Amino acid sequence: MTTNGGFEPVFCTIVPPHVLDKLARAEDSALSGPARRSLEHDAYQRTKRRLTTVIGAPSVAAPAGAAADQPHRTIYDARHTQDLPGTQVRAEGSDPVPDATVNRAYAGLGATFELYLKAYGRHSIDDDGLPLDATVHYDQNYDNAFWNGEQMVFGDGDGEIFLDFTIPVDVIGHELTHGVTQHTANLEYFGQSGALNESVSDVFGSLIKQYTLGQTADEADWLIGAGLLAPQVHGTALRSMKSPGTAYDDPNLGKDPQPATMDHYVRTGRDNGGVHINSGIPNHAFYLVATAIGGNAWEKAGQIWYDVLTGGELKSDALFADFATQTVKAARERYGAGDELQAVQKAWEQVGVRTL
After folding, report:
1. Full-prediction pTM beyond 0.85?
2. Mutual angle of helices 320-335 and 280-293, in 10-degree steps
3. Which of the two residues, 85 and 11, has the higher pLDDT score?
């Protein structure tokens, strides 16, 4: 359940609006057309999401008698329409199907469920066995993936800039983590609290990828969305936690605008106050913590972040300093005054965020 009295009406997409805005102005209609349609669709979904919070969404519960320590996945195919959820094409426990997109979505939902269960003892997104539903092949050349408060939705990409959105498992983990945040700290999707909302999703999306690949913090690439960009794009991913601002530099996409420290914090009225841009600062802080501690990042660094997200003390309108202060407290309470605490304190100092 949320700790902040009601769910924040958040509609979250993996590709930031500023990226699609840039593509929508391209002279090549093969680039601008899908981007414009994706922007229009995303605006519609944001309005729909706000209405859902007013009239209420249908409640979804785990099947009767279902084991809480097992995922309950259902994959649907929209068949290039906007009809949700679409036609069921794979259910929990069924064999893989010929469609690789369906199988990737199924596996990604499972990987997310497993990380939260095995690392943090969390039973699905809501910690109460919430079924994990996803729709693939959504719309025509749709350049995004999103969590709409009830399920995951994946576009196929336009093939020119973006490929199939089920390819990077961290994209799946990122979007589902918005659901975890929705049911815990419920961070408001604007300004610094919105950037924290995005950063938490990047953090756990990256941890899900690392857990799946069996990578230590030093072995991980710390990229969000690696494999999503088409081969001709000058870039490696959507974001870099290791080096914010370096994920792409492309004539069509522009240059990655993420800052790594508060010295370059971006003040803007766009993108809900730059939630996808300034998230680079807490992202980088987590990277610094994880690599300083070493080993598997989901174990200690991830545990500290999870303790803050679910501890009930983080306000929905938290600023970076509030979150940082809570991570210091969580590190001290769980690990004492050792290397973990020092790593957290030093990381926030390096990115220019004061702890209170």
Report:
1. yes
2. 20
3. 85
